[in-house]
Specification:
28% strand; alpha/beta; 13 helices
């Protein structure tokens, strides 16, 4: 970017970044087989090309989670697992954009280290990861880039940081000797190495959210530590900042929804080199025009993915939906729980302990009125599987006692706001707790007492097989590798993983769907303790039909969701 004549000897370097692309190259909702508006790397490609035409000296980075997230990625990774030379369409698209550097997110590791290595080998861009060890020589701990900006030579140091807890979310990393260190500590060391080699600026590609979270390192702590001039955040799919303004942190949403832009004003440093004097950042929504060249690059892969996803994998004799998964009933979750129990049953029988299943919904309206599972009766196609299990998580069997179960459920209770006696039309769902982290446990009876504040014990009447659960009672519980490793904030320290070989959740659900039988009626038995005179509101699909008298529709919201009122003073619950 050029400075006007007669100005002070300052220069401005522009940096662009994408994050959490999740394989969304051309803007397609593969689960519903229709275009996805407002999200696509191909749309960002057109925006990037326009900005480069005005400023060819700018830098382009990606902040991780590009290899997983759509069936396009899943099928490409399956091909790579069979043939390391198979072309990966996401890498092909990223090569076309000409990234100056990328870092790795937690989802890059979902398909195993070998698939990751094969995919990265196809990239024409450097990969930097400062706090992940054991990835081999092709992944750099840091990178120094030189740019000539308005006639001045500037050295930009780049480091990459991944979430430290991701090593707990699966066994593949530990088995492959991959270790993840703390972000701030490792980032400070990488920044010091870059400064020692003459870096004028340090950019941290930090695959973590811009907000503080208790007990976790995030991009907020990295920014506060001060070793980076610019922190590019991600992972949590939020947009930061809300409007263009001064600041040293930026986060570009997900799936190509936004482009991170940072304009860094530099002034000469005493003794030589350059120093940052002002940073202006924004997260700009993607444009409406797709880059036709990028679309053409993946046309064959896109068509092949759609064909494969139309394959019938099972049959359901009843309707499967997640319309009321956050208030006690869901045929779709029941089917998933049955699949998990079927997979773990032989091992539980050998242990001689009661078997439970912890299940979370993935589609509950957070993404809009169409963001629900709503299938059947009739055939179930491969594309429908995304609503039940969008991630390639493996099933894990945990040994857990009554105290651990209480802690597990109490964390799940974070999904709900506190509601007091006599309070009417209080919002039921806490907006800062993701529904995919809300576990319902099949095989137990329990109630949430929402009069109690979060952080206190909100679980009442915890029972199994007609009797109260004691703290020392022993159970087996099947869950996903993500939750078993502490993902979503669950108390992994109160459980023990049983060393058995279980399939992925997707494979278990596919096997269950192939059986074609209707889900059980009484697998889940949870609800809310009665609160005198209180009602709570929540949103569901516009066509949702509650089969309970304590839940009544109030009308559509401006977003097209149906708002319901739940009478907490007359909640219906089966006996335990």
């Amino acid at each position: 970017m050029k400075r006007p004549k007669n100005m002070s000897p300052r220069i401005t370097l522009r940096i662009l970044a994408t994050t959490d692309i999740h394989g969304q190259i051309i803007g397609w909702d593969y689960a519903r087989d229709k275009p996805l508006l407002g999200h696509a790397l191909s749309h960002l490609a057109a925006d990037i090309a326009a900005l480069r035409a005005k400023d060819p000296e700018l830098l382009l980075f990606d902040n991780g989670d590009f290899l997983q997230g759509t069936p396009l990625c899943d099928l490409a990774s399956a091909r790579l697992a069979r043939d390391a030379q198979a072309r990966h369409p996401v890498i092909t698209a990223m090569n076309a954009l000409g990234y100056d550097a990328v870092t790795l997110g937690n989802h890059e590791f979902n398909f195993g280290p070998d698939v990751l290595a094969a995919a990265l080998a196809q990239g024409d861009f450097p990969v930097v990861s400062s706090n992940v060890r054991g990835l081999g020589p092709d992944v750099l701990p840091w990178l120094l880039i030189e740019r000539v900006v308005d006639g001045a030579r500037v050295k930009i140091g780049v480091l990459g940081l991944a979430p430290p807890r991701m090593s707990d979310w699966g066994d593949d990393l530990r088995a492959a000797g991959i270790e993840v260190g703390p972000m701030v500590c490792e980032g400070e060391m990488a920044a010091a190495a870059l400064r020692a080699r003459g870096a004028d600026l340090v950019v941290a590609l930090c695959h973590a959210g811009p907000h503080k979270v208790a007990g976790q390192e995030t991009a907020a702590q990295v920014a506060e530590a001060g070793f980076a001039d610019l922190v590019i955040a991600g992972h949590t799919h939020v947009v930061w900042p809300a409007a263009r303004g001064r600041g040293n942190m930026v986060c570009a949403g997900d799936s190509g929804s936004h482009l991170a832009i940072a304009d860094l004003t530099l002034a000469p440093r005493t003794g030589g080199g350059w120093q940052l004097v002002k940073a202006v950042t924004e997260a700009r929504p993607c444009g409406k025009t797709a880059d036709p060249a990028m679309t053409a690059l993946v046309t064959h892969d896109h068509a092949a993915t759609r064909d494969e996803l139309s394959r019938v994998i099972g049959e359901t004799p009843v309707r499967l939906d997640t319309h009321f998964a956050l208030c006690g009933t869901s045929s779709a979750l029941t089917l998933v729980a049955e699949a998990m129990l079927d997979a773990a049953a032989p091992f539980a029988l050998a242990e001689g302990l009661p078997l439970l299943a912890a299940v979370a919904p993935f589609r509950t309206g957070r993404g809009g009125a169409a963001d629900f599972v709503d299938l059947g009766p009739g055939p179930v196609r491969l594309r429908d599987l995304d609503g039940f299990c969008p991630f390639p998580d493996r099933l894990k069997l945990l040994r857990i006692n009554g105290a651990g179960l209480s802690g597990w459920l109490n964390h799940a209770a974070s999904q709900f706001n506190q509601i007091r006696t006599g309070q009417t039309n209080a919002p039921l769902i806490a907006p800062d707790f993701a529904p995919y982290n809300f576990d319902a446990v099949a095989g137990l009876c329990y109630r949430f007492d929402l009069r109690r504040a979060g952080g206190s014990c909100r679980i009442t009447k915890l029972m199994h097989a007609g009797r109260s659960v004691a703290e020392t009672d022993q159970f087996l519980m099947v869950t996903t590798s993500y939750k078993a490793g502490g993902g979503g904030g669950y108390p992994a320290g109160m459980t023990q993983i049983v060393d058995v070989d279980l399939p992925t959740l997707a494979k278990a659900v596919t096997s269950r769907l192939a059986n074609g039988r209707a889900p059980q009626q009484d697998l889940f038995n949870w609800g809310f303790a009665a609160i005198e005179g209180a009602t709570a509101t929540f949103e569901s699909a516009p066509r949702a039909q509650p089969q309970r008298s304590d839940c009544q529709p109030l009308g559509l919201t401006p977003e097209g969701l149906m708002r319901f009122a739940l009478d907490l003073g007359a909640t219906l619950a089966r006996a335990c």
